[in-house]
Design goal:
498 residues; FAD/NAD(P)-binding domain; seven-stranded mixed sheet; 19 helices; 3 domains; Polyamine Oxidase, Chain A, domain 2; alpha/beta
């Protein structure tokens, strides 16, 4: 039987392109299928609107994995710049530094509110909810009920479109693990006296004070990975959406069919398949249908859109982004793209902001005409007080489906059923990346799942358990220099398959 590729990769995002680059580097024949007709990078791509460049969500390049950092530098040896990390929270018409600055927070909240927050925190620590199951319960244990309502509830429910009582505690444990009120206050009080962390001291990831960033956006990294893949003999085929996937039981060869935008279909054969496609789509494409199809179809996703506003009011704020905790507006976060890199904004007399709205594909916001979304964004940025409506001279809307895998009450059961089913039935089908594994991981974790999968394929067996990446890796919040600490740290996954 003719075989077109050693490995066929579904999706040209960070996980897919990490796989293709490393495999072609080892002489393997690789075909990559990407549904976007033009851009690689997935959610890490960079959009170009009349020379203004912007991210889909914002991507800081920091990792505790030496291998990931080394790969970034290998792909972009001369184009990574170090940027200061700066974020704030907008709540009650006031701005709060993030990470917390204790005295600023106390001043902004006022004496009585601050005292109530401290008492609420102390009560929660003395009356812990054992084995918290929901996001609400987990955060209440760590911060107290009052701080949960001020700094977590509104923003989190904007992001997910569901109650904090419906979101699994797993999401909180993964994204804000290790951060508690006492640690945050201590970090704020002592930061000025300890700019350099002691050797071996733990780095908590969201509070890093610096990070690296491609000078023209994250898409620059993945365009480089795609170019290297092609130079090494791999193929990257754009405008191809997975439609059918089947494996010959006698030969073990996969046949993969994809549909183009014009409705035509093409098929390829391969010995291995690496999929970063959403599990729900993968399950529907498999033939015969997997036993775990019900679980695959039960997984949920949160979608996302960015309204980029170009304004004559420049140098608005130094933050990379501002979290909007104000319930009176729908916007969840505001990006300042010049703060990511000066090269993102070509005109020094203009600013480019990205207003992020969280939605479900097909809902009222997702289906709203672009002009209505631009009008909404202009009115809300004025209400927040950053830019007046008449200072906006241009705008652009970008929609991103399946931006976030949803961690509801049942997601872990469904993912476990899918994993057990596919690993037993299809040993040469490898799931990687955020949507490929239904894990809310970041770029470095997605890359590491791909790097370990490549090692498994080259070894001819599952040497590494890629599902341990987020469990074994410490991924939470602390201070320190991201670039320096990443170079000293160990790989994200210390365990092999038992």
């Amino acid at each position: 039987m003719r075989v077109d590729a050693d490995v066929l990769v579904i999706g040209a995002g960070p996980a897919g392109l990490t796989s293709s680059y490393l495999l072609t580097k080892q002489g393997k024949k690789v075909i990559v299928l990407e549904r976007d007709p033009q851009l690689v990078g997935g959610i890490s791509r960079t959009v170009n609107h009349k020379g203004f460049l912007f991210d889909i969500g914002g991507h800081r390049f920091f990792s505790k994995s030496k291998e990931v950092v080394a790969l970034w530098k290998e792909l972009l040896p001369d184009d990574l710049i170090e940027r200061p990390r700066s974020s704030r929270i907008f709540y009650g018409k006031k701005f709060y530094s993030y990470p917390l600055k204790a005295f600023e927070a106390l001043t902004n909240l006022g004496v009585f509110q601050s005292a109530a927050c401290v008492l609420s925190y102390m009560w929660a620590r003395l009356n812990r909810i054992e084995n918290p199951k929901t996001f609400h319960q987990w955060v209440r244990n760590q911060f107290g009920e009052r701080l949960f309502r001020i700094f977590f509830k509104t923003y989190t429910e904007k992001v997910w479109g569901m109650s904090c009582d419906e979101i699994s505690a797993d999401w909180a444990a993964q994204r804000i693990k290790g951060l508690n009120l006492g640690a945050a206050v201590w970090n704020a009080l002592t930061r000025g006296r300890r700019r350099q962390q002691a050797e071996g001291e733990e780095v908590i990831k969201t509070l890093i004070e610096s990070f690296e960033y491609p000078r023209k956006g994250p898409g620059m990294m993945w365009e480089a990975a795609a170019a290297r893949t092609r130079e090494q003999g791999g193929e990257i085929l754009m405008d191809r959406t997975l439609s059918k996937l089947s494996r010959d039981e006698k030969t073990g060869i996969w046949t993969v069919t994809a549909r183009r935008g014009d409705g035509s279909e093409e098929s390829w054969t391969a010995r291995h398949v690496i999929s970063s496609a959403p599990i729900r789509e993968l399950g529907d494409a498999l033939s015969p249908k997997p036993l775990s199809l019900f679980s695959a179809r039960s997984l949920k996703y949160r979608d996302f859109l960015t309204v980029a506003l170009i304004s004559t009011r420049k140098d608005l704020f130094a933050d990379n982004w501002i979290y909007i905790h104000d319930p009176s507006v729908k916007v969840g976060r505001v990006q300042n793209f010049r703060s990511w890199s000066p090269e993102m904004v070509p005109d020094p007399d203009l600013a480019c902001l990205g207003l992020e709205y969280f939605c479900f594909e097909g809902d009222e916001m997702w289906n709203a005409p672009d002009e209505d979304l631009v009008a909404l964004a202009k009115s809300e940025i004025a209400k927040i007080g950053l830019v007046e409506e008449d200072e906006v001279v241009d705008a652009c809307v970008v929609r991103q489906p399946k931006a976030y895998p949803v961690y509801d009450d049942d997601y872990k059961h469904h993912v476990t059923m899918i994993r057990l089913d596919l690993e037993r039935s299809y040993p040469t089908l490898h799931l990687v990346g955020r949507n490929g594994m239904h894990k809310y991981n970041n770029q470095d974790h997605a890359m590491m799942t791909a790097m370990l999968t490549v090692e498994n394929i080259l070894a001819g067996e599952r040497v590494w358990d890629v599902w341990n990446v987020n469990e074994d890796a410490e991924y939470h919040e602390a201070g320190g220099s991201g670039a320096a600490e990443a170079l000293k740290s160990e790989r994200l996954v210390p365990r092999k398959v038992a």
